[in-house]
């Protein structure tokens, strides 16, 4: 797998398949990117499990925080790593001990560990590095475009509000969509 560029079909396939995501390195602080990404994915219907040893047994957005991946009492489809690159390898090594193994190891923006990625891929696990699932979900579901970003059109016209609350969109490939990476 070329980890410098991912086809949309690869990212879309992951986001359409996983249901349970363990986020390692989540912060309880509402102004932190990990908190915002966690909340966003939770609101989109994913089962989100926070992992942070310093916050274990507390909760974030009603979800119990676990100290480590192996403490989680249910299967995890994806491990989303919100830690610096130097901390990735031990997290991936722990993920490989889970029964069943997760389907995906996802490393957040600016997080990359090629050795950890190779280890996960040797175990049959898909890997994404230096990407944010929140951003990718928004981009592939057209939520970002709906808000006027990534639409290649500049306008001062306000986006239409199609109802109150969060707009939930699907990220399945639609007829006529291209698959540019």
Topology:
Elements: H1 8-17, E1 20-24, H2 33-43, E2 47-51, E3 59-60, E4 63-64, E5 78-81, H3 88-95, E6 104-107, H4 114-122, E7 126-128, H5 133-140, H6 143-146
Parallel strand pairs: 1-2, 1-5, 5-6, 6-7
Antiparallel strand pairs: 3-4
Residue stretches low in confidence (pLDDT < 50, at least 5 long) are 146-155, 162-167
Order of helices and strands: HEHEEEEHEHEHH
Shape-level CATH architecture: 3-Layer(aba) Sandwich
Shape: globular
What distance lies between the first and last C-alpha atoms, to the nearest angstrom? 13 Å
Rounded mean pLDDT is 87
Output the number of helix runs.
Answer: 6
Order of adjacent strands in the largest pleated sheet: 2-1-5-6-7
Number of domains: 1
Give me the Rg, rounded: 17 Å
**Helical content (DSSP H or I, runs of 4+):** 25-40%
| CATH fold naming | Rossmann fold
CATH class: Alpha Beta
Got a strand count? Answer: 7
């Amino acid at each position: 797998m070329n980890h410098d560029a991912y086809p949309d079909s690869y990212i879309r396939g992951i986001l359409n398949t996983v249901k349970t995501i363990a986020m390692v390195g989540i912060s309880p602080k509402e102004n932190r990117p990990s908190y915002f990404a966690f909340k966003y994915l939770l609101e989109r219907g994913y089962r989100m499990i926070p992992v942070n040893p310093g916050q274990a047994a507390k909760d974030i957005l009603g979800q119990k925080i676990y100290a480590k991946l192996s403490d989680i009492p249910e299967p995890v489809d994806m491990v989303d790593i919100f830690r610096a690159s130097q901390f990735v390898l031990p997290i991936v090594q722990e993920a490989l001990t889970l029964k069943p193994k997760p389907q995906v190891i996802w490393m957040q923006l600016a997080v990359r560990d090629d050795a950890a990625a190779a280890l996960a891929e040797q175990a049959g696990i898909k890997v994404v590095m230096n990407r944010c699932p929140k951003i990718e979900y928004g981009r592939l579901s057209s939520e970002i475009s709906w808000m006027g970003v990534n639409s290649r059109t500049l306008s001062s016209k306000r986006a239409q509000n199609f109802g109150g609350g969060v707009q939930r969109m699907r990220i399945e490939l639609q007829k006529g969509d291209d698959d540019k990476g």
